[in-house]
Design a protein that fits this description.
Blueprint: E1 10-15, E2 18-23, E3 28-34, E4 41-42, E5 54-65, E6 70-75, E7 80-83, E8 87-100, E9 104-118, E10 125-140, E11 149-152, H1 156-164, E12 188-191, E13 208-212, H2 216-229, E14 232-235, E15 240-243, E16 248-250, H3 255-276, H4 287-292, H5 308-315, H6 320-323, E17 333-336, H7 346-351, E18 356-358, E19 372-375, E20 417-418, H8 421-429, E21 438-444, H9 447-458, E22 466-473, H10 477-483, E23 491-494, E24 520-524, H11 530-537, E25 542-546, H12 552-563, H13 568-575, E26 583-586, E27 601-608, E28 614-621, E29 631-632, E30 644-645, E31 649-655, H14 657-665, E32 670-673, E33 676-678, H15 686-694
Parallel strand pairs: 11-12, 13-14, 17-18, 20-26, 21-22, 21-23, 23-24, 24-25, 27-32
Antiparallel strand pairs: 1-2, 2-3, 3-5, 4-5, 5-10, 6-7, 6-8, 8-9, 9-10, 13-15, 15-16, 17-19, 19-20, 25-26, 27-28, 28-31, 29-30, 32-33
Helix pairs in contact: 1-2, 2-3, 9-12, 12-13, 14-15
Length: 696
């Protein structure tokens, strides 16, 4: 990891015939072995069909790629030619070879015949040319953490300068920035005595300005939109968006009306960007394009090469209601207190494109009152929406301002989450384990319940997301404190009354100075979030507080969803949707504590028809590991292979019980019936499908 290194985001090192591409931000290295010692000279980033952070050229006749995740051959315009499998030969032409591994590398070579051999597994791939050629290698950091830290004094006007720099992480400002891989992670903001901007950072030149009044409330409400547009934030008498075409879009001056309008613009412009990009770097054939395209006053791909201001002029002609039913369900929405301490949350919220609202007392609040809360609209997604023509209840339904929780509430409202910069930084510091490798521990005071929960975790089959499982009965206070301070544990579930002997009056825990924590801690039978806040302060990425006990069956579902890559908000709400159990969170409710091959959580909703057939709808859910703007293609028994934005749903079609069982046999999907969730490691039969699908 590097914080503002003068090397930039990508560096190239030569040792003999090995060219090492270093992702300076992520601290990763990808070696390329050349047939001769490469003599490097700088190359123009513009040579490559997609953005790179740095590039070099050298002469070579062949090179070996020892480590990679995928290799795709494209022409120099970026159009797909072939995906490497075992061996491949390409006729004379000009190519750009895209290598994904610990970082992204592009290899450009012109007027050449190519032979690629090896691979198809862990073996290296050798790429040979018919003669020595000038080879250009460019690379782009995955940029999944901040590259630098901006210091800001407690002054809203100074904060506008820092917000103007958040867009420096975005690789380009075409509609392609709606892909999360091209947005990067914005630089951190920390409070200090004076404004200090690290030298690698600069304000993007997009021709757009966001005008705010010099108040924390205005700056916060417009921060995420400003980041996404790469706009310079300036102060003025009234909120507005200024384009270099000379047009000014005036915004409401009243606080709640302002945040609703800004949220509407962010979501609408984001979705329109995803439609304009459909013939771009990654061509796609999407449901949303077919649904929205005919109602637009322009042909979306025609706007791809226009300036930001020209595109926004066109976008402003689109009624927000036209796109609203097709918006992704947002994974995170934030509510910030209008105080200087909230500023450190802005980069993390911008990274997940979280709309920001402002509530709470800016004056004398309790010292332990949160500076920010978050909710997760996607966690309230209702699979029964597939049975309704009311699109207002669909995945893109907008949250209403009268449901916005206040940081002044005590306890915080059910369904809300206490957010802090610590929680986001802890997530960045901790490696995210792959599904199947997670260490899970349970602490229970009751022996019978402990046995029931243990059985639920391993019967009828062991949850496939778990690597190690430990269930402890009647642990001593020291044993509880030790478990709740073990950073090697991914999930710790703390049953009701287990912490009674070490709980302070405010709900925090007495852990005798221990300074570490599991990745995620779940506390049962609690109404406050003090214990979860403490866990995050000790290094945890998040916590869940459940107001009541959870049955072993529902607990199996919750842990199974968590260990398969679901966010904490989605896993909790899906598993407890039919039970009167309140949940409160600490950390971003979109936090995922596991990854599943980079895939989103996929929910296949199954409902019985008049005959022995079933209507199926598909949802996908976002998280801190699967960001908004990515796409997914539902597969299985359905022939329509159109893709969708992650965070949306589609009516997939009709199938029979064997089709449902085929979906279930795939490792990733979660099946949802009217009152049951079925995981991949759960038993399912044709009779079971019929029984569950017919329940109402």
């Amino acid at each position: 990891m590097n914080d503002g290194s003068s090397e930039g985001r990508i560096a190239f090192d030569v040792d003999g015939t090995t060219l090492t591409v270093r992702d300076v931000i992520e601290g990763e290295e990808m070696p390329l072995i050349v047939d001769r010692e490469p003599e490097l000279c700088p190359a123009l980033p513009e040579l490559f069909p997609s953005p790179v952070d740095g590039a070099v050229s050298f002469e070579a006749e062949s090179l070996v790629i020892p480590e990679y995740a995928s290799i795709v051959f494209r022409d120099v315009d970026g159009d797909h030619v072939a995906r490497h499998n075992d061996s491949i030969e390409l006729e004379r032409g000009s190519y750009c070879i895209e290598v994904d591994g610990v970082t992204k590398v592009l290899i450009r070579v012109t007027d050449v015949e190519i032979a690629a051999t090896g691979g198809g597994g862990p073996d290296p791939v050798t790429i040979s040319f018919d003669r020595p050629r000038s080879v250009s290698v460019g690379a782009r950091s995955f940029h999944e953490r901040p590259e630098a830290t901006i210091t800001v004094p407690d002054d809203p006007a100074a904060l506008t300068e820092a917000v103007s720099l958040l867009g420096s992480s975005i690789k380009e400002f075409s509609p392609e920035r709606s892909w999360p891989t091209l947005r990067g992670y914005p630089p951190r903001i920390e409070r200090g005595d004076s404004l200090d901007v690290p030298s690698p950072l600069s304000v993007p030149d997009t021709g757009v300005e966001v005008v705010v009044r010099p108040t924390y409330a205005d700056v916060y409400r417009l921060s995420t939109l400003s980041y996404y547009l790469g706009a310079r934030m300036v102060t003025g008498d009234a909120p507005a968006i200024r384009l270099d075409t000379g047009y000014e879009e005036r915004l409401p001056t009243e606080g709640e009306a302002l945040e609703e309008r800004v949220t509407e613009l962010l979501r609408t412009w984001f979705l329109l960007d995803t439609l304009v990009r459909t013939e771009g770097y990654v061509p796609s054939d999407r449901y949303e394009y077919d649904a929205v395209g005919p109602d637009l006053p322009f042909y979306p791909p025609n706007l791809a090469d226009q300036s930001m201001s020209e595109r926004l002029m066109e976008y402003l002609e689109v009624d927000a209601e036209t796109v609203a039913p097709h918006l992704p369900a947002w994974p995170t929405e934030a509510v910030l207190r209008p105080v200087s301490a909230s500023a450190e949350l802005l980069p993390h919220l911008a990274h997940v494109l979280a709309p920001v609202r402002v509530r709470g007392n800016a004056g004398s609040s309790a010292s332990d009152a949160p500076v920010g809360l978050a909710t997760s609209p996607q966690a309230s997604t209702d699979p029964s929406a597939f049975d309704s023509s009311d699109t207002s209840s669909g995945p893109g339904a907008r949250s209403r301002s009268d449901r916005v929780p206040s940081p002044d509430a005590d306890p915080i409202p059910a369904g809300a989450s206490v957010i802090s910069a610590d929680a986001y930084e802890n997530r960045l510091r901790r490696p995210v384990p792959e599904r199947g490798t997670l260490s899970v521990a349970f602490l229970f005071a009751d022996g019978d319940r402990a046995r029931s929960v243990r059985e639920s975790m391993v019967e009828p089959a062991r949850l496939d997301g778990i690597g190690s499982l430990d269930v402890t009965v009647s642990p001593s206070p020291d044993a509880v404190a030790e478990t709740l301070s073990d950073p090697a544990l991914d999930v710790v579930f703390c049953g009701a009354s287990v912490t009674a002997g070490i709980t302070e009056a405010d709900g925090s825990l007495r852990l005798d100075g221990r300074t570490e924590a599991p990745n995620l801690t779940v506390f049962e039978g609690t109404r406050t979030t003090a214990a979860g806040v403490d866990a995050v302060e000790r290094g945890g990425a998040g916590a869940i507080h459940l107001g009541d006990s959870v049955s072993p069956e529902r607990l199996r579902t919750m842990i199974g969803l968590l260990t398969a890559g679901s966010s904490i908000g989605v896993a909790t709400q899906l598993s407890l949707r039919d039970r009167p159990v309140t949940a409160r969170y600490v950390g971003d409710p979109g936090t995922a504590i596991a990854v599943d091959r980079g895939l989103p959580t996929q929910l296949y909703s199954c409902r019985s028809q008049a005959t022995d057939t079933y209507r199926v709808g598909c949802w996908s859910f976002l998280s801190t590991e699967v960001l908004i703007g990515s796409e997914y293609q539902f597969t299985g028994v359905f022939s329509d292979r159109k893709s969708v934005l992650n965070g949306t749903g589609v009516k997939a079609g009709i199938t029979d019980a064997s089709g449902i069982l085929d979906i279930h046999s795939d490792k990733s999907p979660v099946l949802e019936f009217p009152d049951e969730i079925v995981l991949w490691s759960d038993d399912l039969s044709a009779d079971g499908v019929a029984a569950m699908a017919r329940r109402r």
